[in-house]
Amino acid sequence: SQQGEEDPQALSIQEGENATMNCSYKTSINNLQWYRQNSGRGLVHLILIRSNEREKHSGRLRVTLDTSKKSSSLLITASRAADTASYFCATSLGANNLFFGTGTRLTVIP
Amino acid sequence: KAGVTQTPRYLIKTRGQQVTLSCSPISGHRSVSWYQQTPGQGLQFLFEYFSETQRNKGNFPGRFSGRQFSNSRSEMNVSTLELGDSALYLCASSPMGQGAGSYNSPLHFGNGTRLTVT
Fold it and tell me: What is the average pLDDT across A15-38?
């Protein structure tokens, strides 16, 4: 299966701290995407990084991609209570659907 | 621009019944994908429709089917419901879909339909 796995499964931090989540996948990819899901809601796209990119920034988000290790990380800096959500990585081969990881449940304590 | 709209928001059905879920994509988006989300299996791809044609299909039994209309709206049908079909069903749209050449388009998700089978 191409499905990714996020690590850790759950993360609890204080507001203002940084949060780092990791994603590992199994096969070659064209791009890797990160999504956020608030409880019981749909997923919201955060950032996409192409296979030929190593790092990408968007606001307080920083994503890295290491295709040799088949892994990616999502860093959220200066976390806020509103960042409390589940975060998923998703990989795409380009020819088919997106494969989502198992998710990291982030709790930011005010 | 209005987002992806899924109806109904909640559904309760009994085993053996069938159910139809509806999804209206973002205006101008021609691809609609469906995903099933459960605590045990996570997010799993059901199928993708583009210009009224099923373009990709996940590994689900034939009880799960879908269709897309000329206005890009999509419906998903599950027949002979089983307890294990209880899940959050998510619809996502994108401008061109996830085929080769367009895979760098992110998906825009609706808030889902929560189906409970009793």
Answer: 93
Query: Of A110, B29, A12, A92, whose CA–CA distance to A101 is shortest?
Result: A92
**What is the C-alpha R_g of chain B?**
13
- Name the CA radius of gyration of chain A, rounded: 13
Give the tens place of pLDDT for each residue, A90-99. Answer: 987 655 578 8
Q: Which of B43, B56, B104 to mutate to test the interface with A (most CBs of A within 10 A)?
A: B43
* First-last CA distance in chain A: 38
* Residue found by looking up tokens 């209005």 in the block: B2
Task: Tell me: cis bond preceding B39? Omega within 30 of 0 counts.
Answer: no
- pLDDT tens digits, residue range B84-106? 999 999 999 988 755 545 556 78
**Total beta-carbon pairs less than 8 A apart between chain A and chain B:** 64
Q: Is A28 helix (H, G, I), strand (E, B) or coil?
A: coil
A107: tokens are: 């709790």
Given CB atoms, is A2 within the 8 Å cutoff of chain B?
A: no
Identity of the residue numbered B11? L
